[in-house]
Amino acid sequence: MFKGSYVAIVTPFADGKVDEKALRALVDYQIERGTDGIVPCGTSGESATLTYEEHCQVIDIVIDQTNKRVPVVAGTGSNSTHETVYFTEHAKKAGADGALLITPYYNKPSQEGLYQHYKYIAERVDIPIIMYNVPGRTACNMLPETVIKLSKIPNIVSIKEASGSMDQAAAIIGGTDGDFGLLAGEDALIYPLLCIGSKGVISASVNACPAEVAEMYDAFTSGNIERAKELHFMLLPLFDSFFMETNPVPVKRALELMGLVGPEIRLPLMGMTPEGTAKMKAIMEQVGIL
């Protein structure tokens, strides 16, 4: 089972291309600061703007640089089932430990369509699959009963739940077996979801505060609940600042301020506004990561 603090790693660019050197350095930065797993080509990795070649390139680079030190869960989801199979097959051949599959966006499939989508992929690619439900980005909410039904398929092992609903998360945790895991997809809910039985988080914010989120998870699982709660409240303003503009714009700007990536982001996204940058920078300084 995938558990702990996983980073939905950003994709650094330079001169319109994937910045391989910066990406490799980011992988090392994360692992050295306690991150439990790396997720390339998630939505925080600007996967929607990557060409097929770049998507596979980023997965390959991350797997190579990680060198089995921590698990790699490759983002391979799409709003096309056949395209998802293509990327998931590549991830398996490249040596990924799992695949993260976002619910098909824009299409707005029915619950049965969602079930058949994930079932189709799971039956064709023998790799551990983490589903990803983020209705705020996809206009598609996968309901608990659909998740519970899919959890019976052996290689569908977890869900990144980002509906923002504690009720929905609780229904999933309560309705699935112990070998199926829920991972937080809303950074502000990492601690509350741990309290009701989640197995960790796949987070955009971890790009800029890996040690702090890893410490929160480790404190909670070791029984130091007060320390985990303290870190939760300390990090809440930071999490909020990373989402005051469209993800991953703020967190990439934060990494730029930290000297870890360049300023480039791909259209149709734009760089962070000066006003937003000033607010975020002040919070980063207050938390002590800058």
UniProtKB/TrEMBL annotation:
<dbReference type="InterPro" id="IPR020625">
    <property type="entry name" value="Schiff_base-form_aldolases_AS"/>
</dbReference>
<feature type="site" description="L-lysine inhibitor binding">
    <location>
        <position position="105"/>
    </location>
</feature>
<feature type="active site" description="Proton donor/acceptor">
    <location>
        <position position="132"/>
    </location>
</feature>
<dbReference type="InterPro" id="IPR002220">
    <property type="entry name" value="DapA-like"/>
</dbReference>
<keyword id="KW-0704">Schiff base</keyword>
<dbReference type="Pfam" id="PF00701">
    <property type="entry name" value="DHDPS"/>
</dbReference>
<dbReference type="InterPro" id="IPR013785">
    <property type="entry name" value="Aldolase_TIM"/>
</dbReference>
<dbReference type="InterPro" id="IPR005263">
    <property type="entry name" value="DapA"/>
</dbReference>
<dbReference type="GO" id="GO:0009089">
    <property type="term" value="P:lysine biosynthetic process via diaminopimelate"/>
</dbReference>
<comment type="similarity">
    <text>Belongs to the DapA family.</text>
</comment>
<dbReference type="GO" id="GO:0008840">
    <property type="term" value="F:4-hydroxy-tetrahydrodipicolinate synthase activity"/>
</dbReference>
<feature type="site" description="L-lysine inhibitor binding">
    <location>
        <position position="83"/>
    </location>
</feature>
<dbReference type="GO" id="GO:0005829">
    <property type="term" value="C:cytosol"/>
</dbReference>
<comment type="subunit">
    <text>Homotetramer; dimer of dimers.</text>
</comment>
<feature type="binding site">
    <location>
        <position position="44"/>
    </location>
    <ligand>
        <name>pyruvate</name>
    </ligand>
</feature>
<keyword id="KW-0028">Amino-acid biosynthesis</keyword>
<comment type="pathway">
    <text>Amino-acid biosynthesis; L-lysine biosynthesis via DAP pathway; (S)-tetrahydrodipicolinate from L-aspartate: step 3/4.</text>
</comment>
<keyword id="KW-0457">Lysine biosynthesis</keyword>
<keyword id="KW-0220">Diaminopimelate biosynthesis</keyword>
<feature type="site" description="L-lysine inhibitor binding">
    <location>
        <position position="106"/>
    </location>
</feature>
<feature type="site" description="L-lysine inhibitor binding; via carbonyl oxygen">
    <location>
        <position position="48"/>
    </location>
</feature>
<protein>
    <recommendedName>
        <fullName>4-hydroxy-tetrahydrodipicolinate synthase</fullName>
        <ecNumber>4.3.3.7</ecNumber>
    </recommendedName>
</protein>
<feature type="site" description="L-lysine inhibitor binding">
    <location>
        <position position="79"/>
    </location>
</feature>
<comment type="function">
    <text>Catalyzes the condensation of (S)-aspartate-beta-semialdehyde [(S)-ASA] and pyruvate to 4-hydroxy-tetrahydrodipicolinate (HTPA).</text>
</comment>
<feature type="site" description="Part of a proton relay during catalysis">
    <location>
        <position position="43"/>
    </location>
</feature>
<keyword id="KW-0456">Lyase</keyword>
<dbReference type="GO" id="GO:0019877">
    <property type="term" value="P:diaminopimelate biosynthetic process"/>
</dbReference>
<feature type="binding site">
    <location>
        <position position="202"/>
    </location>
    <ligand>
        <name>pyruvate</name>
    </ligand>
</feature>
<keyword id="KW-0963">Cytoplasm</keyword>
<feature type="site" description="Part of a proton relay during catalysis">
    <location>
        <position position="106"/>
    </location>
</feature>
<feature type="active site" description="Schiff-base intermediate with substrate">
    <location>
        <position position="160"/>
    </location>
</feature>
